[in-house]
Each structure stands twice: as C-alpha cells, then as structure tokens.
Amino acid sequence: MKNNLFFIGILLCAQCLAQPTDDSYTRYELLEPSTQSFRILYEVTATAPGSEYYYNTLRKGSEHKVDGVLDLMTGKKLEWTIITGADAKKSGYPEAETDVDYLKIKLARPILSGNEYRLKIDKTYKDAKSYFTQSDRIIFDRSLGIKRNAVVLPKGYELIKCNFPCQVMMEADGRLKISFINAGPAEVPLHLEGRKLAATVDLGVIPVKTQPSAMGQGRDKSKARAEFSFPERANQTREIVYFLQQPETHAFRLYHDYTETREGMDRYLNVVRPGSKASNPSAKILDTGKELKVETLKGDAITRKSLDIGEPITPETEVVVIWFDPVQNGQSVRLRIEETYTDPSRYILYNTELVFDRSFGRPFNTVILPGGWFLTANAVPATIDLTAEGMISLYYVDDAPEEIDVLIRGRKR
Predict the structure, then answer these.
(1) Whole-angstrom Cα distance, residue 137 to residue 134?
(2) Residue 6: is it exposed, middle or buried by C-beta count within 10 angstroms (0-12/13-18/19+)?
(3) Of 6, 57, 116, 246, which sits most exposed with the smallest number of CB within 10 A?
(4) Pairing verdict, β 373-378 and 37-46
C-alpha cells in the first residue's frame, strides 16, 4: 500500500509541475474582415512526465470559441472543457492566472518519461484590437510568443506589409500564407497589412514540380527557377542534435526527430553521407516509447529491398532503415533516430583546434562541443548556451530552404 501511495504521489506531483512543451506551431486564418475574427490551429507537444491533462491559455481580451482538440498520433478527438484560472489552479496547474480562462484537455494516455504527446487545438478568437480594418487595408497586429507561426490572409487579399522576415506562398485555394520562424528570445510584435484585390485577379495555383530539385549550391543559376517548389520552414519539425566526441575520434553521436504523416508509409531512410560511417543506430516512437527495428544496408542490399533512396545506388551507398507500422489515414508518428557518425574529413583535429565543418538542411540544429573544450570560432550565427553538464551548446535556426554551411572551431581549456 505504501508503494502504491508513493507512486500516486509521484504522478500528482508531475501533474502539478509546469507543463514543458516543444515543437509549438500556430496557424492563424484571418476570417472575413468585418467579423474581426481569426481561426487558430495550434499544434503543441506536451512533455511533462505523468501528465494526464494539458492546459491551454485562452488569451485575455479575446472572445473565444473552441471547435475541438485532436490527438495527432491517433487522429482522434480529445475531451476538453473551459475552466477559470482559479479552477485550473485547484485541478493541478499552479501557474494558472486567476483572471484568465483555460482549456483543460484530458489526455488519452499519461506521458511517460522521455516521451511526447502531440496535440492540435482548433479555436476561433474575435479580437478587434488584433484584427481590424483601416481605410482600404486589413491589419493583423498581435504579439506572438510561439516561435513558429503562419498567418493566412482572407481569399482575394494581397500582402502589402510585414514587419518580420517571412516566407510567402499561395495555398491550394488561392489564399496567401505568411510564415516565419522566430529565432530570438523575445516575442514578435507582428504587424501585417493586406489589401483587397480586384475580383478579376487570377488566384489559380500554378502547378510546380513536387520535388525541390533546384535547391542548393549546385543548381543552375543562369535561369529563373520557374517550377521550384519550396517547403514552409516554420511548419517543419525536423530537428537534430550533435554531440561531438573528442576530435581525435572524428566521431559525433547524434539524434534526429522526424514526424511522418504520409498514409501507408512504414519506413524512414537515412542515407549516410559519402565519407561518413554510421554505427550503433537505434530508433523509437516518441509518442509511445516503442523501440523500432533498425538495419543498415549497403550497395546491392539496398536494391534487393527495392528501396527508393532518391539517388543512384553505388556499391558504397549506405543507408540506415527504420521500420514501423504503416501510418493510417489521419494519423502520424513522431520518430527519434540515434546513431554515431565517424567523419574524418569534416570533423578533425587541426594543430590544437577541433574543426567541425558540415552542412545543415534541417530548420533546427544543435551542436554540443566535447567536454573540456571552449569555442574559438563560429561562422554561421547561432544561439550559444551551456548544457546542464557545462558543455558549450550552439543552436542554429535555418529558416530558408537552402542548406547552411556550419563551421565551428574550439580549443581545450
């Protein structure tokens, strides 16, 4: 009985802690201007072990209507209720503000240590201070604390002003989407302005190639990329962390996270770069903690498995394959792949300095220096901090569809 009480106490304490989150992304869809309303699709990953509920703040000053909450792994609807801040404090969220309402969401399964729970919240706000009309313009003026955001204009409106660096793309229905990643520590005081287009303007989407084959330094720069398609970087959740080992080994341990949403997909292919060698691969589903089957294939073994790796297969081609149950319609799976790379060409000891020189294609990238080393050079701007163990950590946000060439140097303390 004592052990059971102890276990229950641990769960209750976990529920009463702050609810750390990861991978948050918000999509604002501006509705017809006279409504002064916008739909919010908020994707968030809850990570607090033992949590049975997730609390979402319903922003003060806005009239809110909640349309539903989805479990992104299963695609199923979750139970929710709107409660006061006082009730949120009583029910296990001590950080709740008493003058704010909260969306209390019942999770379908407790969050285990090291796992994640991915949610999508669908709600609509009416807020005349954030979304209004001025002369012939619509204005969206709102402070955004989430780091990854998109704002979709009403159909038939052009973008004429945005005060923060952004991507612009046309949706399949002709609406314009403005998307950005905030790499800084502060909120973005976002200010957008749009203007109505003539009814005769063509808003049809021009077909482009499905693959961004004209991306990167090797592209033909002598002509325009007329059929170039590029991804919305803010909506991508691919991230990677490199743990540099001592430079004499030329090795670095890494893990990279990836969300698979394509119906029927049952594998993840990680093509090993030429000059590198991968070892000790492992993988799991972050939603549940389930360990996955992993195999390393080379040359003809790749061909025999009928695997399309997106490039010609040579005897030296190496690929790490992670197998999982096929993704069902409306569902998704979040993967974490771990492995050790050895790369004597791009991670070296030169005189007394370590040199790490590698291109990054993911939006979110972290490099951690080995213990006992300090930073002497960093070519691409990064956010720098100490890990809990006291090692130097560099965090790179690549908000463009092109790769960045990271160059790091360090010396022993």
Answers:
(1) 5
(2) exposed
(3) 6
(4) unpaired
Burial classification of residue 30, based on how many CB atoms lie within 10 Å of its CB (0-12 exposed, 13-18 middle, 19 or more buried)? buried
272 in Cβ contact with 320 (< 8 Å): yes
Mean pLDDT of 85-96: 91
Query: 392 is written with which tokens?
Result: 């130097």
Residues 364/368/374/379 CA torsion (nearest 10 deg): -30
Domains of the chain, first to last: 16-196 (2.60.40.1730), 236-412 (2.60.40.1730)
d(CA 344, CA 277): 9
> Encoding tokens for residue 112?
């285990």
Tokens 């993988």 belong to 283
Helix count (H) and strand count (E) of the chain? 3, 28
- Kindly report, residue by residue over 137-177, the tens digit of the pLDDT: 999 999 999 999 999 999 999 999 999 999 999 999 999 99
Type of residue found at 201:
V
